[in-house]
Amino acid sequence: MLRIDPIVEPPDVRLSLPGSKSITNRALITGALANGKSELSGVLFSEDTLAMIDCLEKMGVEIISERDNSSVTVIGTGGSLKPPTETLWVNQSGTTARFCLPLAALVRSDVVIDGDEQIKGRPHKQLCETLEILGAEIEYLGAPYTFPLRINGKELKGGKVNLGGEVSSQFISALLLAAPCFPEELEINIDGELVSRPYVDMTAAVMRAFEANISHPSDQKYSISPTGYQSSEYSIEADASAASYFFAAAAVSGGKIVVEGLGSQSIQGDIRFLNILEEMGAQVIRSEDSLAVVGLDSLSGVDVSMAEISDTVPTLAAIAPFASSPVTIRDVTFISGKESDRIGALITELTNIGIRAETTETGLVVHPGAPQEGIIHTYDDHRIAMAFSILGLFTSGITLDSHRCVTKTFPNFFDVLDQVRAAGDARLRVLAIDGPAGSGKSTLAKYLARQLNLDYLDTGAMYRSVAAVALSEDLDLNDEGKVASIAESIDIQFEGDKVYVDNEDFSEVIRGPEVNAAVSQVAANPGVRSVMRRQQRAWARLRGGGVLEGRDIGSVVFPQARLKVYITATPEERARRRSLETGQTVEDITKEMLNRDTKDSTRDDSPLVADQAAVVIDTTGKTIEETSSYIEELFL
Ligand code: CDP
Fold first, then answer.
1. Residue whose C-alpha is closest to residue 303's, from 285, 320, 284, 282
2. Is the CB of 564 under 6 A from ligand 1?
């Protein structure tokens, strides 16, 4: 369950969003098939792209990831993929599933492909049939045309194939991407109008950047010469589908949101979502390297065909209630076969919060209204979760029943959403207290909270709780994903000095030597930090402010806190105080604290630093009353 906090002030922010999922998964393939070493920047690391990386690696491609830099180096194979020793596991990723089918045929010996339950329900019939026509042998290990299947492309050639325009554009993209490494030219003829053409155009644009020879003499025809690919230094745009949520938020809010890394020349069809917002009455500012939306007085309804930008249907449906007239979305029947039955999901969930929404012959219509509070079922579909989060910015009491699905394409979605709330957060009565281990922050913070009549939050106890659960489950602390999912799943509650995790009293165990030794590693995990930040901000919003104490409160969690204080004391003094509290020897404590301080100050994500605007107070030799009355005066 995740409560979505509404915004209380219109935003005015510049956002840097993750790289495009669609371009990342295409460029990984062109890089993997190229001659030579490719450098990709702006890479998205999410479940879907990690699935692609994993499948390529299993086919012998060397991929060096630098997640902190959002970049990867791909050592191209010149088209010679190796037989995997294990099943290719596409997880839940549609592009990985489809794109890997022709790639696996390039291996030219048996390759088994399988994936998650959700992907097993998605059909690949025309793609499989086309590969069979081109010479691949496919054996279906379950139901026909679905995963798991075994493919062998040793007889694969080129030739002419026909595909219906109504099939998934991913089938055409999949064939195009592998085609430069076929032994002969491939000609694809499309019968009828091609749906989602912008995605095929995007595929062609990425292929050309890696020097593929692809000709497109008419709307109905693509020819690809068997030239292979050449390596490239390729910069991936920010994800336009991900940006749609923030453009939509700006349009409703009356504020301004600028998205960087995405420009008017984008190869992503989804930037056309901006045209719809423009038609509804929002202002759109386009430049070469950024796109912005300014919300004006009000939004009117629209009647639009969204066949070509269907990933943004949930976004539009979620802001539709705030328009002054109905929003009609046409030509999107096929989105019922995405991660969820999206049309059904949108109508059910909008209806549940009191909005009139109905299916039409080819889509849906949403009527104006004021959404009521309620619990939104997300169907484990990232786009439903993100779209209703935007609705929740303008409606109090919206809760998502599950939200981890956003990691499929946008792992830091909720962090970015917090940036949209920054103007409102600046108005909270937040006192941020940071400092190194044992500096006396907790005692001081509790005292100050009483004096100022505010609630107190010990954020260190939150990191300690995650560490304690990770240790109790015997997890490898280096497995960042697993440890982060603990942060997401446990419920931490405070009652006076007691800390309860999933209703169990953890007050003692979180202060024990095992947790002391492990907590800094757990706290350096970016996934854990992202969840903790979100919970800490939500805690303060619910109370209109509070005294929060930790390591990054003034620098990262509440950079616009009303007052930031950085508390220090000499190491001897800190160890002496803690020894009095715990009975441990001063030597042991000094060692343990300095060890943690080093780890906390040198980590990449939110290192312990005195924020530039923080008041630094050395408490050595000072009484708590002295320090506290000084801070109270500054705060009030
Ligand atoms: O009480 P003490 O100052 O020794 O530590 P704490 O406040 O209980 O914090 C325990 C650990 O949690 C720290 O050493 C940090 O690794 C981590 N922490 C953090 O990274 N960020 C925070 N805001 C609070 C704690």
1. 320
2. no
- Going from the Cα of 463 to the center of ligand 1, the distance in angstroms, rounded, reads 7
The residue written with tokens 């104490």 in the block is 549
Tell me if 440 CB under 6 Å of ligand 1.
no
Task: Report the distance separating Cα 228 and Cα 36, nearest Å.
Answer: 11
What does the block give as tokens for 99?
């794109």
| Residue 215 domain flag | yes
Tell me what percent of the residues of the chain surpass a pLDDT of 90.
Answer: 89
Ligand 1 atom 8: the closest Cα is on which residue? Answer: 460
Domain with residue 500: its CATH number is 3.40.50.300
Helices 94-107 + 47-58 axis angle, to 10: 10
Query: Closest ligand 1 atom to the C-alpha of 552?
Result: 23
Distances (CA, A) of 484 to 2, 147, 602: 16, 30, 20
What is the per-residue pLDDT for 371? 98
Check: CB of residue 529 under 8 Å from CB of residue 537.
no
Ligand 1 atom nearest to CA at 536: 23
Q: Is 618 in contact with 573 (CB distance < 8 Å)? A: no
How many A from CA of 550 to the centre of ligand 1?
6
How far apart CA 18 and CA 44 sit, in angstroms, is 6
CB 617 within 8 A of CB 630: yes
Distance (Å, whole) CA 490 – CA 386: 22
Q: How many CB atoms within 10 Å of residue 180?
A: 24
Domain with 476 in it = 428-635
CA atoms within 13 A on the CB side of 385: 24
Which of 407, 314, 280, 332 minimizes the C-alpha distance to 166? 332
pLDDT surpassing 90 at residue 411: no
Q: In the structure, how many helices (H) and strands (E) does the chain have?
A: 22, 33
**pLDDT classification of 283: cutoffs 50, 70, 90:** very high
Work out the number of other CB atoms within 10 angstroms of the CB of residue 390: 26
Please state the pTM of the whole predicted model. 0.89
| Whether the CB of 578 sits within 6 Å of ligand 1 | no
Same-domain check for residues 216 and 254? no
pLDDT value at position 555? 96
Please state the domain count of the chain.
3
For residues 268 and 26, give the distance between their C-alpha atoms in angstroms, rounded to a whole number. Answer: 12
> In 3D, which of 591, 16, 553 has the Cα closest to residue 260?
16
